[in-house]
Amino acid sequence: MRFTVLTLFPEMIEQGFQTSITGRAMEKGLLSLRCINFRAYSDGGNGYVDDYPYGGGAGMVLQAPPIYRAYQAAVGDGPRPRLVYMTPQGRVFNQGLAQELAKEEELYILCGHYEGVDERVLEEIATDRISIGDYVLTGGELPALVLMDAVARMVPGVLSNQESGGEESFMNGLLEYPQYTRPEVFMDRPVPEILKSGHHARIARWRRNESLRRTWEVRPELLEEVELDKADREYLDSLRE
Ligand code: ADE
């Protein structure tokens, strides 16, 4: 998977992505990252890429031409890529969207700053507008890293067998069950007895119930979308009582 990021702060993206699992995957050639600073494409090379908004109001707006020139330089004669503009006005990111984007061979991401980006360049180049949640950050770089990380770990080979999560939050539509490792007792809290029983079926049932309980407690709306069997429904009924 090739990521191309159009940003005023390439070092932020590079530092973040070169760290840990995604950094290792880049070394292995499974992921690549190209950051393009569209300040280098400012009008007449003056370094200014923003201007006052038409119609007035606070803040500045990123101009269309520098972003478009940077985009064109990156795309060259290649096909029009999928380009995600990170914005709180986009559809909200989730695991399903990460899985969908991970199927692309190449993904472009545009990070905005200040009050926004001239709508006309977005109409021209953006195929998607994505928000990472209902809050406003100072720029699109952290959202881009969030999206890139979630997408990258879906790319085959990026996670080792040990890391790869068949059983993780959202994979089955539920929040993940709690995990424990040694020591057996920590600050008077023992590991749940069942996990030491070696009884795989009962452990699986206990974990499923813990997933159901957590989801019911903090994200009950997720339960609407999950396929529940008889044992699940009985357990949920017992919680409601
Ligand atoms: N830029 C600023 N805030 C954002 C958010 N919540 N999601 C995506 N991009 C953003």
Outline the structure in words.
The protein is an alpha/beta fold and 241 residues long. The protein folds into 2 domains: 2-162, SPOUT methyltransferase, trefoil knot domain (Alpha/beta knot, 3-Layer(aba) Sandwich); 167-240, tRNA(m1g37)methyltransferase, domain 2 (Trp Operon Repressor, Chain A), CATH 1.10.1270. It contains 8 helices and 9 strands. It has helices spanning 10-17, 20-27, 64-75, 95-101, 119-125, 141-152, 200-218, 230-240; strands at residues 2-6, 32-36, 50-51, 61-62, 82-92, 106-111, 128-131, 185-186, 189-190. The strands form 3 sheets. A 5-stranded parallel beta sheet has the order 2-1-6-5-7, sandwiched between helices. Strands 3-4 form a two-stranded antiparallel sheet. Helix 4 (95-101) links the parallel strand 5 and strand 6. It is elongated, with a radius of gyration of 23 Å.
What is the strand and helix layout of this fold?
Elements: E1 2-6, H1 10-17, H2 20-27, E2 32-36, E3 50-51, E4 61-62, H3 64-75, E5 82-92, H4 95-101, E6 106-111, H5 119-125, E7 128-131, H6 141-152, E8 185-186, E9 189-190, H7 200-218, H8 230-240
Parallel strand pairs: 1-2, 1-6, 5-6, 5-7
Antiparallel strand pairs: 3-4, 8-9
Helix pairs in contact: 1-6, 3-5, 7-8
Task: Provide a compact summary of the structure.
This protein has helices at 10-17, 20-27, 64-75, 95-101, 119-125, 141-152, 200-218, 230-240; strands spanning 2-6, 32-36, 50-51, 61-62, 82-92, 106-111, 128-131, 185-186, 189-190.
- Which outline best applies? elongated
| Total of domains | 2
The profile of the biggest β sheet is: 5 strands, parallel
Which sequence of strands runs across the widest sheet? 2-1-6-5-7
Strand content: 15-25%
| Ligands bound to this protein structure | adenine
Look at the structure and name the CATH superfamily of the largest domain. SPOUT methyltransferase, trefoil knot domain
Order of helices and strands: EHHEEEHEHEHEHEEHH
The CATH architecture of the largest domain? 3-Layer(aba) Sandwich
Low-pLDDT residue spans: none
Count of strand segments: 9
The average pLDDT value, as a whole number, equals 96
Q: What is the gyration radius calculated from CA atoms?
A: 23 Å
User: What percent of the residues sit in helical stretches (DSSP H or I)?
Assistant: 25-40%
Q: Would you tell me which CATH topology of the largest domain applies?
A: Alpha/beta knot
Q: Please give the count of helices.
A: 8
| Content-based structural category | alpha/beta
